[in-house]
Each structure stands twice: as structure tokens, then as C-alpha cells.
């Protein structure tokens, strides 16, 4: 029995690992045998539509199959997709496909790893206790939304206690809530407990009230007992895949849990981490939130996935892909373009290589991953493996932005991640007021809004108010501010586009 | 590897069994080695309050520990308690206690066996699709409630699509919904699929519309993939316990799933099944719904649990316990009183035996199960084991009431299960109209309301409108009718008492 076996239990077709206990063991036993894996970030071009994926998960699966076939101990860390969206039929599965598939895709697509339901139950229980607090006069309003994994536009604005208190509430999808963020960012149950205690439940006479003032935290943490354990499954090729956490990348932090990545890095030499949507979304959040503010590992390499069409076809949008690739290279991260071919596109390979060369990219990796899986990639990985081996980017300790005034921080992200300079980052009417109210709320619990980590909330399909506009007229509009004090985050809604431009689901 | 091992997988600290596949295997292989276990029903006196349990679960656990210590291959089947109620703190755990405990009570109390969340997600997805159908003009209203495992009085009446459609809805606790009933009563995924298709989603121009008309059923059944598998755990004494399904016994059918009991009967010689609340609730539902209408096994023996105080202290209520014991004996089921002593009550043993003797009961089994567990029972089981061994009650095929006019059926239950004759079973204003509307609805899908099985919905703490009244003036008021066409059930609310007299939870 290996060390990790002591912390692993079967759960039907997956295993779950008590990552908290495993990492604590390693911390308490510094001489224990362990690896020091490097993180490879898989990200993508900004998609044309939120519902049209570039193939990041398929790439992640094919990549680890390919690396393992070349003798590298590689594993992947994926997020748990939103079961409700799969069930409702709005998006296909989010677990690869064809030859680059998981052994049990239904487990991932249909939420059978279990943590979504537990997180939903825990967040809804918090709201129930808040409703009771309203009845008891302890709260005037409720600032925490109910959640459901099952989507329904009708749930966005609801009234509870109809006919009596008529309390307005809203229901959001589970992958967007603060408790999901807390589970993603915490490294122990004690930390989860403290963060839940620090969540702002609502206000009383204008002053914020935190959950720690009136609930028994063990009720929440007990519900999460199994939810905090990463699930382990595998690709059809037999490569290990860990699945844990599922925040969306447009309206939340878009990364799997920190402990699942750290656990994987203790067990494997290369850990491929998939962050959601485009480089301006999940990747930006891994770098600027997880790494800068929460101690995660800077990537030793990055793969930016695109379809043959996404990055080239629309001349007004074709600036985005090179912008992403160059930005990551500029951060010291060896960055590899990966073009995921659909059927009938094999004849484009030469023109794709020419285009990449003209843009000064590293030699792109190109293949039909659905059809050929890891076999499409393995022969093309020499440059990647060399660069990864030599990379010291994982030692980077990027500066925290803690204490940086919020607007300055947003402006910094707009510049570094979206290419828009400060003079074209503009508040919309209502923004200043929203910011002031948020700052007052945080002050009311004795904290400073500038100490919270910034989460950019915006459409997945656009980086600025209009990506088709000429470079020197692109703008970023600031819309509103919302704090998630328990998670330690401040969410700022950006750009005039809809944040969630999904087709009507249900 | 035994036969059952082929259908069993570890799930962390429990195992889950693919009961559908196991029972199908047995049906296809009639020569396969299997047992033919007898069902023992554990029920109780009508409680004084819904929140004050008599100790049925503790008894069930102690009983199988005691039987196994005497060489009998016994196992228990329990329901999954409502995690939300445990988490919210309104009721202690529902998994025994002291020496009569499960190895992992938190798994049962905190819903970590998983099916509640899946059933909730599936039922909520049905409602989401119904809301979409309303938007599309396919439905005028929605007759299926949303569900939550997390209780909150504020959720009983809500409005969705606030500010636009303003659609009234309600949220009920997951253990009370029709989909839970379907999971409890179905013996295959195909059956679940057919029943979900037959659920009435709402009406259009006054005519009922079933889900089968407009949803893809595989979306629902896939969510339920693991929920249909009974969980297996054990007592501290090492006795096998199966946990599956959790409908409440006051507002629903109060029994564990039929397949979990049938599976257990194929594996063990004695299967102790716990039904919820008193003999007038869960036991009545096992006998008159599960056995008469759905092919379940008539009990070979019954144990009626009471505390030392419940059955004797209030002279106006002391008729209830003997009524229950005699009724079951009258149905041909050897019935054993079991008095569950609390601390400090040991000195009552003699007077308890005297009282039992005076009432003509079989020799009661008496013990402090929390303190002594199975050891308290084992020396007292001679009579029980003899009667069980000799019992042929399990061969009883009680007549179905299919086709019996609904009011006649309700009257029959009021007489046989509550001791109230037909002339004192009275409709309240609005009942007739409710019945007509329900009958019309069912007719609209080509079925007859009299063919549905009757579920009596009433307070757990009273059998009649006033149990303290003299026998010749006790009445049962009929309040309203609601059909669960998918499950094949018709629910009739009875008595003037509140159906759910729980203290305010959250």
C-alpha cells in the first residue's frame, strides 16, 4: 500500500482522496517521499460563443495520454462540470470525447462525484438560517443567494414566504456561489469553517452581519465532509485524472480546487490543470488570484487551445489569440499553441503552421484529438517536453495585489489581460455608488475592500466592450461591485456584454 | 467472490449495491443460490409529538444484533433520514444511539449515501422543464413542486420569475415528493422512466399534460443512476444494514424502497424493515400500499415499539397502543410489544409486564436499548424466534383495493387502521370539490382515480380528529385530494390536525 492509498477510498467507479489529511501528513512529515510536480496550464482562445468550446478538456486528456506514452508521469486536474447544464441539454458533456475520453464521462458530466449537491445543500442551509434570522429580527435582508444545480431562468428572481413576508431572493447556479469559491480556495476544514463564519449573511440597520454570529458552523462543515475530497478517475488511455470543484470562469474563478492541484503535484511530475473559458478568464484567474493571492504554483508551461477557425477567420477578432500567447510568454511561461482540428480540417495543417510562424509563436501542436487522442500529440511534443523540463517558471512568486486600490487593480487587469489602457477603462453610471456601498459593507466587518482579491466577472466571449473595434478604441466598462467576504474576494462586473450569454436553457 | 459481490461497489465508508441488476439476475437465473428471507416489520405506538421518537431505529439495530448473536442471519432495512432536518438541528440523528448504533451514523444522518441530492436534482429539473413549457405556451400552470432537502418555512409558498411571469410555486422537502415515491416503488430503471413519463406536469386549457409529452426521460434517469442503488452499512455489532429511500410517513409512504427489502430477503433469513412514525402511519402504508398494491411481502412478525410512558401515562390516549397490537395480530401477524426504557426506568419493568399481561399481549420485550443494545434483547427472544420460525404470514396475498371507490377506500382505512366507523368519517367543506377535480385530472390522462393506491396524509401524532375523545365520538375529517399519477398514488389529507406539526425548523 502506497502512502496515498491510506487516504484513498473507492466510491463506486471513482475513488475519493482525503486531500486535506494527505497534505497535512506531508506537512507534518517533511521527509516523506513525495514528488514536486510542475503545473501546466491548459487554457484557450476567447471563444466565439460561450456554448462553443475550443476543446480544452479533450486537449487535457489527450495531452496527459501523450506525455505518459512518452514516459512522463503526468496527470490532469479538471473541474466538475455543471450537471444541471448537461442534464438540461444546453451543452454537450464537458469531459472530452472520442479517443480523448474519460473512462466514465457520465460521472463527470452528471455530477456523480457528489460535491455539487453537498455544496448546494450547505449554501441553501445558510440561506435558510438567514431567513430564520430575518424572522427573528436579527437581519433586515439576505445578501446570500440560494443555489440550484438545475438551471431555470425563472429562478433568477424569486419571492419567498409568499403572502406573508414576501422576501425577495434569487437563485443562482451552484458553480457560481461563494461557498463553491470557499471550497476551491481552502486548504483545511478549519479554513472552510472560518471562511463560512466570515461570509456576510445580510445587514441589520445598515450594518453587515456575518454567519459566524448566529450559526453553528459544524452543521455546514459536516455536510461538506465528502465534498472536500477530490475524485480520481482516469482516461481511456489509463492516465490519472482528478476532478474537484467547479466554479464557472465567467462569473467566478474558473479553476479546480487548490488542494487537488497540490495533491496531484505531490504524486506526479507534471500536473496539467484546465482553467475555464479563454486565457482572459480562467487562466487570468489562476495567475492573478490563485497564484498571486492564494499560494498556488505559477505554471511551468501553458497550452493555449484553439480550433482551426476560432483564431483566424474573423479579421476583427484575430488579434485575440496572439495577444494571449504573447502575454503568457511575456510572463515567463513557455506557451504552446495547440490547434484542435475538427473533421475535414486536416488539409489546413500547413497553413496553420505558416500562420503560427508568421506570428512568431513556438511551433504549434496540431491534431484531431477526438479522432486520434494522445496519438495525435505524442510525436509533436519534443519542444514542449524540453521547454517544460528546463522551465523554472514554477518558482515564480508573483506579487500580491493586496492593498492595491480596487479600481487600480481592475485597471491593471484590463491592461495586462485585455490590452486596454487605463484611460479607456470607464465606470458606468452606478458603478461608483456600487463600489462605495461594497466598501462600506466590508468596512462594517472590520476589513478593507482593497485587501480582497479581484474577480473579473464578464462575458466569456469578449474581453472588452467590443473586441471587433480597432485596438485604439476598445474600452472596458465597469458596472458593479459585489463582495464575497468569506472567500476573500471582490467581484467586479465588466464590459457592456451580458455576463452569461448562454442560450435559454430551461 | 459471492454473487452479491458482483453487484456491490465501495462508496467510501459504505457500499452500494446495484439492486436492479441483482434482482434481474435472480429472475433470469431461477436456479441461482438465494435465500427467502422473512420480513419483520418494526413499527411503534402513535407518538405524542412528531419530534419525539419511540426508538424504532434503535430497536431495529438492537434487534438484528440480538438475532445474529443467537445465530439468526438477520439484517435491517432503514430509510435515509432527512439530512436537512438533522443539519438544521430540529431533530437528533435518526440512526439509533448508544450501544445500538451504526458504525457511521453521520453517513445516514447527513445524507452522505447520496440519493436525496440526486432525487432533488431530478425533481427540480422536471420543474425547470415545466417552467420552460409554461414560457412556450405548452402549460398554463405547474402542478409539481420544487424540492429542497434543506427546510425553510419561507419556501412553502414562493413566486418564480419575479417581476415578469410571477409564477406561484411551492417548495417541499425532498422526502415528500412524487419522484421519491417513484424511486421507492419501482423495480427497474425502465419502470422509473415510465412512471416519470406519467407524472402530471400541469394543465393546458384545463387538460392535464404529462411529462412524457415533452421531456427526454433519459435526462432524469441518468441523474438517478446511483440513487437507485441501496447503500450497505453496519451496526457497531457488525450486523448488516441497508439504507435506501426516505419518504416521510405522515405526508408520504414512510417505507424504504421495495427493491432494498427484496434484495435483503434474497441475502438473509430475516429482514427487519422499519416503517416510519406509528402503526397508523408507516406500518399501515407497508401493509395496505406496498403489500396490497405493489407486491411487497406481508410481514411474518411485527414489533411495536413504545417508550415506558407513551402507551400508559395519558388515560385518554392509552387505547392506541393496544389497538395497534391487536390490529396487527388480527391481520395474522405475530405481534410483539417492545418497551424501550429510558434511563431511570428499569424499576418499571414489573409493572410494564403486568400491564401487558392484563391487555392480553404476548410477553413484551423490555430493555434499555441505548444502554445495553442487542444484549438487552437477546435473552428475551425465545418466543419471538419461535413465532417467527413458525409464521406463514409471509405467504399472505392481501387483496388489492384497485377499483374500490376512493371514499370507500378511505373509510376502510379509517375503520381498520384508526378504529373509526364509516358514519363518523366526514368530508369537510371543499373535499368533494377537491375529489372531483382530482378525478377529472386523472380521467384526462385516461385513467381512473379509483385505480390509484390510497396514501393517507395526516399528522403523525394523531389517528383521528381528537384521539382523546371517547371512542364513540372520535371522527375522521376528509380535507382534500391530490394525485401522484406517476407513482400511481392518490393522497388524501385527513383529520383536523396539522399534517406537519414540527416545531419551526428554520
TrEMBL record, chains A, B:
Highest taxon above the source species: Bacteria
Root EC class: ligase
Gene Ontology molecular functions: ATP binding; formate-tetrahydrofolate ligase activity
Annotated pathway: One-carbon metabolism; tetrahydrofolate interconversion
Entry's EC annotation: 6.3.4.3
GO biological process annotation, one example: tetrahydrofolate interconversion
TM annotation in the entry: none
Signal peptide: none
UniProt keyword annotations, A-Z: ATP-binding, Ligase, Nucleotide-binding, One-carbon metabolism
Keyword ATP-binding: yes
Descriptive protein name: formate--tetrahydrofolate ligase
Organism annotation: Bifidobacterium minimum
